[in-house]
Specification:
The chain has seven helices and seven strands. By secondary structure, the protein is of the alpha/beta class. The protein has one domain: Rossmann fold, CATH 3.40.50.150. It has a seven-stranded mixed sheet with strand order 3-2-1-4-5-7-6, with helices on both faces. α3 runs parallel beside α4 and α6 packs parallel to α7. It is globular. It starts with a helix and ends in a 6-residue tail after the last strand.
Length: about 200
Amino acid sequence: MSKDWIRQRKKDPYYRKAKAEGYRSRAAYKLREINERTRLIRKGYSVLDLGAAPGGWSQIARDIVGEEGEVVAVDLVGMSMDGVKFIQGDIEDPELAEMITQVVPRFNAVISDASVNLSGNRNFDRGRNFALGWAVLKLARELLVPGGSCVLKLFSGTEVDELKEEFKVDFREFSILKPKSSIKSSSEIFLLFRGYRPRSGD
């Protein structure tokens, strides 16, 4: 990380706010804003947070679902948080779904602010993020209860249309969100799929 990046980060109001309010990352405000607009997560829900570390989204989800709900967090990087069950694993691992169902069998919401580490090669990074988004939605299709929802991060581009076309048949609604707390210069957007409809035979 460059010194300029660190200085800019410290000037960021959401970074400072997260520090003051005890959130593990500024990303917490993205999920808070998304949930205020959509009520994606509600009290008593079971929520799966994919690519959870350092835990900002898990904190928000845990606070919303309360003691009646459950939050399961998954990441390659180890993470510990009161009130959150953690699985150390790879989102693209074909055996991950089975590992998750051993902890909680089904979820009302699957959420993901995950992104690959950027290499600087734009096309390569977009391809890797597309694969990651595909893996998130595939897990959502396997693990959501009927009527459940999934929100995930992607970078704007043709990949958005590809994911929409592949997975829209599984959901009643699709929308694109750009929280105010997203860094203005970032091309990140959030895809929201609502109203999961299991295919016959699932």
